[in-house]
Design a protein that fits this description.
Elements (H helix, E strand, L loop, with lengths): L2 E3 L5 H12 L5 E3 L11 H6 L7 E3 L5 E3 L1 H12 L10 H31 L7 H24 L12 H13 L8 H10 L3 H7 L5
Parallel strand pairs: 1-2
Antiparallel strand pairs: 1-3, 3-4
Helix pairs in contact: 1-3, 1-6, 1-8, 4-5, 4-6, 5-7, 6-7
Bound molecules: glutathione.
Length: about 210
């Protein structure tokens, strides 16, 4: 059985679980990381020397870390040439572009506020870090807003694996209790995603 190692409330674990479901792949997810621990062991570090989740363990024992690399591997292996992971170089490049944007630009802007608000004890929170992060996120998510005002999905007219990281982060941005500009295209994108059962069940849940 394919294994996905990582706690369900990790955005990077959510991506892999959601991708497996879109691809119709069987998996068993195991709680690791956060309160579950288990990352700082020789056995886990042998699978992921960064001691982070997720790790994908294929049925033959082959392992891979880095959530977006896992999505690319799953697409190339189980959905090659399909609408989910198109062969067309430009459609694929757009899916890749938004995956990389999520991991770098979006995460760099919103990540500090998320860590302060959800992973830091109240007495240790730095309001300045939170304010700066929220202001930066408003600028970066404006880029996604403009893109999604022009087309319904990351790579154009069809849902691809490139939407998975993007939609996970858009959900977080729209649902954290923070002030943000009115972003109607991002809101419509979230509503479009709600028609996908895995997004509704795995991603569109209270943020913890
Ligand atoms: N770039 C990595 C980031 C992985 C990462 O930062 N994972 C976090 C959870 S989202 C983690 O393992 N945190 C430590 C923990 O859960 O104990 C990826 O996309 O897989």
């Amino acid at each position: 059985m394919r294994r996905i190692l990582g706690r369900a409330n990790s955005i990077n674990v959510m991506k892999v679980v959601w991708a497996c479901e879109e691809l119709g792949l069987d998996y068993a997810r195991e709680d690791l990381g956060g309160p579950f621990g288990g990352l700082d062991t020789p056995a886990y570090r042998a699978m992921n020397p960064n001691a982070l989740v997720p790790v994908l363990v294929e049925p033959d024992g082959w392992t891979l870390w880095e959530s977006n690399a896992i999505l690319r591997y799953l697409g190339a292996t189980y959905a090659k040439g399909s609408a989910l992971w198109p062969d067309d170089a430009r459609a694929r490049a757009l899916a890749d572009q938004w995956m990389d944007w999520q991991q770098t630009v979006a995460n760099a802007s919103l990540g500090p506020a998320f860590v302060q608000m959800y992973r830091t004890a109240p007495e240790k929170r730095d309001e300045g870090v939170i304010r700066k992060s929220i202001a930066r996120a408003a600028e970066t998510f404006r880029v996604a807003e403009a893109h999604l005002a022009e087309q319904p999905y990351a790579a154009g007219d069809a849902f691809t694996l490139g939407d998975i990281p993007l939609a996970c982060h858009v959900y977080r941005y729209l649902h954290m209790p923070i002030e943000r500009p009115d972003f109607p295209a991002l809101t419509a994108y979230h509503e479009r995603m709600l028609s996908r059962p895995s997004y509704a069940r795995l991603v569109a849940v209270p943020i913890t």
